[in-house]
């Protein structure tokens, strides 16, 4: 019974994890590895990642006039349009503001940084097309920044 209860909360806990990681709120490799295990996120702490930022065109008016479900539900909708571990890349939508979407892309199966960046570039282009096609939300790529290892996102104390 406990396993069933945990599985209900896992998606929300994973969203919180990605946001905490992006913001540097995880402070040790041990804590990162524990969270990856508990949340059943199939990547290693030393895996290469990319920080991706999309700029939402007219995001404020979109949220107030078109999308009537709030920022958190839009964040979930954006995450649903991303591939789930496609070609060895695992995506986490870290946060969504009226102007930007912040996404972490992590190599799930040991790709090198170059292969990861190529796949992420392709998937983010597909995401932007899907946002416009399915949600009528225009976006543009602001940046994709490669990171050597997920551990580089930790806040050092």
Write the SSE topology.
Layout: H1 2-22, H2 29-38, E1 49-56, H3 59-66, H4 71-81, E2 89-96, E3 100-107, H5 113-135, E4 139-147
Antiparallel strand pairs: 1-3, 1-4, 2-3
Tally of domains: 1
Q: What is the tally of beta strands? A: 4
Average pLDDT rating: 91
Strand order within the widest beta sheet:
2-3-1-4
Predict the CATH topology: Alpha-Beta Plaits
- What is the rounded Rg? 16 Å
Shape-level CATH architecture: 2-Layer Sandwich
What coarse outline follows from CA principal-axis ratios?
Answer: globular
Report the helical percentage: 40-55%
CATH class: Alpha Beta
Q: Uncertain regions: pLDDT < 50 for 5+ in a row?
A: none
Describe the structure.
The protein is of the alpha+beta class and 157 residues long. It has one domain: Alpha-Beta Plaits, CATH 3.30.70.100. Helix content is 46%, strand content 21%. The chain has helices spanning 2-22, 29-38, 59-66, 71-81, 113-135; strands at residues 49-56, 89-96, 100-107, 139-147. Strands 2-3-1-4 form a four-stranded antiparallel sheet. The mean pLDDT is 91.
């Amino acid at each position: 019974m406990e396993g069933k209860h945990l599985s209900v909360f896992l998606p929300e806990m994973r969203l919180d994890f990605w946001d905490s990681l992006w913001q540097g709120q995880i402070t040790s490799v041990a804590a990162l590895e524990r969270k990856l295990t508990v949340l059943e996120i199939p990547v290693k702490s030393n895996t290469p990642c990319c920080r991706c930022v999309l700029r939402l065109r007219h995001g404020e008016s979109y949220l107030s006039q078109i999308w009537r479900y709030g920022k958190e539900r839009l964040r979930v909708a954006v995450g649903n349009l991303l591939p789930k571990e496609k070609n060895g890349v695992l995506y986490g939508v870290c946060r969504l503001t009226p102007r930007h979407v912040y996404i972490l892309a992590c190599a799930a199966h040991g790709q090198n940084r170059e292969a990861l960046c190529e796949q992420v570039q392709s998937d983010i282009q597909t995401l932007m097309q899907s946002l416009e096609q399915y949600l009528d939300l225009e976006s543009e790529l602001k940046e994709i920044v490669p990171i050597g290892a997920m551990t580089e996102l930790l806040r050092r104390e």
